[in-house]
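Help: read this over?
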Amino acid sequence: MLKRSIEDINFAILTTQRSGSTWLVSLLDRLENIQVCDELFLNRTRTPGKKYWDSDVAYPRFVESRSSGWSFRPFSVFSYLDRLYDRPGAVGFKLMYSHLKAYPEIWAYLACKRVAIVHLTRQNYLDILISSRVKNTMGRSHILPGEPRPETIQIDLEPYTLIPHLKKLQHNQNFTRQLLKQFRLPHIEVVYEDLVRDATQFDRVWEFLAIEAPAAMPAPKLVKIRRGSHADVIRNYKEVKAILMDSAFAHLID
């Protein structure tokens, strides 16, 4: 593996919504000489006055930026990313599958610039659906340290669309793996559950990005709202379990 100096490391964390990516980004951004931005291609501006985990250091999203030079795509996207990666130190940002669908020219930029890709996946697709429903119900899925946590959280999962949604999540992961190979991008895949369970799994990330391992892992800037087992959180748990037990996704439920 070719080693790069920390001054010229350009990377992206490629993932899907509710994959634990905000937790990972907020953790990495606390390391010295590393800047990791959130969803820069989210197609809406930030809410004025709202407190975000990165409010103090947030880089303007693409829709909030004014391109210098080119004002139309794909060149405005390329110029925006050039300015992002011109910043000193190790620089990365969170890139969603859906962003690549909306801005397919990003694939060309990543391939041309040989941007290192950390492909973050979550093995339990059911937890992705639960996290999405929690966010829709609560209006958020994380709290800042010190903020009060709700005593109980319960959500319902739609039984008739459950299996199709799980299959779609599985397909999107597999399709992205194929695209990474086709574009011959330097990449590794890391699993959210592994990172949470075993901090030594981060060693692969440090090696891939040629970043010196920290003496101690910093605490993330966010705390998950959800606690408890599937039976605690899913209001129609018995119905959901019965459906899953008769499918290829039986292993996902507690």
Observations:
- Strands lie at 10-15, 34-39, 90-96, 116-121, 142-143, 187-191, 223-224.
- The radius of gyration is 19 Å.
- Residues 1-6 have pLDDT under 50 and may be disordered.
- The longest helix spans residues 159-182.
